[in-house]
Amino acid sequence: MVFGGMISMKKNIIIAIMLSLMLFLIGCSNSGNKKVFGEYIPKEILYVSASSSVSRITLEKNLTNAKYIIEKDKFEVNSPGTEYKISNPIYEIKEMNDELIDAFNDAVLNTISIAKYKNRNQYIIMKEDNMATPYYLYSLDKELWIASYGIIKDKYYIKYLYKLK
Fold first, then answer.
1. Could you give the CA distance from residue 79 to residue 135 in angstroms, rounded to a whole number?
2. In this structure, what DSSP letter does residue 53 have?
3. What is the model's pTM?
């Protein structure tokens, strides 16, 4: 009976350790979002696709009037011609491995290199029902970029890419 009680106690300790570890890891994964939360304006246009319906000249004119609000409970894009708002967004953070870097390079037709950055994270922004939005964030060392995505023939491409401040 004592032996069975010890096994049960060890199981409980293992379960408690596993739960603590899971809570710690969940806390760590969500804490990365705090680095990107805030209100931003575009600092610089990094890329405009030839397939984009908006010209670089138009984007430059709208640059000073645009604002991005990235918070735990909302994501908003406010610029001339574009108003996009979602409540309770889901920010799925992915460390950019070789596969994601290749996908990024393909999406910008290899015109921008992110090789010089040591810390590269991609934030997929989804609605609370897990539906995709046309926006991704890229946290690259101390820089934050926002991309607007489109799809042509089942292939993702970046319509435009801004550095935020």
1. 14
2. S
3. 0.76
Structure tokens at 30: 């969500």
Q: Which two tokens stand for residue 157?
A: 């491409």
End-to-end CA gap in the chain: 65
Q: What is the C-alpha separation between 104 and 22, in angstroms, rounded?
A: 31
Neighbours of 161 (CB within 10 A): 24
- Contact by Cβ (8 Å): 107, 158: yes
DSSP-based helix, strand, coil % in the chain, nearest 5? 35, 40, 25
9-59 pLDDT tens trace: 554 444 433 433 333 333 334 445 668 999 999 999 999 988 877 778 888
CB-CB contact of 47 with 149 (8 Å): no
- The strand pairing partners of 90, in sequence order, are 126
Alpha helices (H) along the chain: 2-31, 56-62, 98-107
Tokens representing residue 163 in the block? 């550095």
Grouping H, G, I as helix, E, B as strand and the rest as coil, residue 120 is strand
pLDDT, tens digit (0-9, with 9 covering 90-100), for 103-155: 999 899 999 999 999 999 999 999 999 999 999 999 999 999 999 998 888 88
